[in-house]
Amino acid sequence: MRHRGILSTFVPVAVLVLLGSASLAQPMSHPGKGFATAGAVEVGGSISFQSITPVYGGRTGDAVTILSLAPFIGCFVADGFEIGLNPLGITHLSGSGGSATLVTIFAAPSYNFRTGGIVYPFLEALLGYTSASNGSSQSGFSWGGRGGLKIAATGKGLLNIGVQYLQITLNPSGATSRNGENQLAVSGGFTVWF
Hints:
By secondary structure, the protein is mostly beta strands. It has one domain (2-193): Porin, CATH 2.40.160. It contains 1 helix and 11 strands; from the N terminus they run αβββββββββββ. The strands form 2 sheets. It has an 8-stranded antiparallel beta barrel with strand order 1-4-5-6-7-8-9-11. The chain has a two-stranded antiparallel sheet with strand order 2-3. Strand 6 and strand 7 (119-133) form a beta hairpin. The radius of gyration is 18 Å and the shape is globular. The N and C termini lie far apart (41 Å).
């Protein structure tokens, strides 16, 4: 069932990537020309909602819902090089087996390639901390990366699409080896810059 959810998310994002890539060679003709230059600030984030209902032998199981919020703020310290922060990412999972809330904070240094067009490919590292609340305390160092495109949708607005990989650590107190999950996701969001 999870593969269908990933596929239904991936296809529209892939279409946007292809359309955005076609515009790489187009010259910038709107006021968004100063993005990815030293001193620029980028603010925004992403929100997602997913409901998964398993089906076994023609019978539906209990649905699981996932709501994620991921704010972002970044400052360009040099042309193309941005120091970013995902200050308080929240993911809430709920289903018949209970619920859990994951809280993350990530430093997010990235490089945004200036192409002269309206599309900015980017590579981003994610380094930080995750804590889970589901009746017991679990937490730990988490890391990963993201790559994708920022597309100037308006003069000061950017559509962000990418692929993200995270190794989330959720160790209970006294754990001697890593517990948690590895996540691979297609992500989308919107940021503004000034």
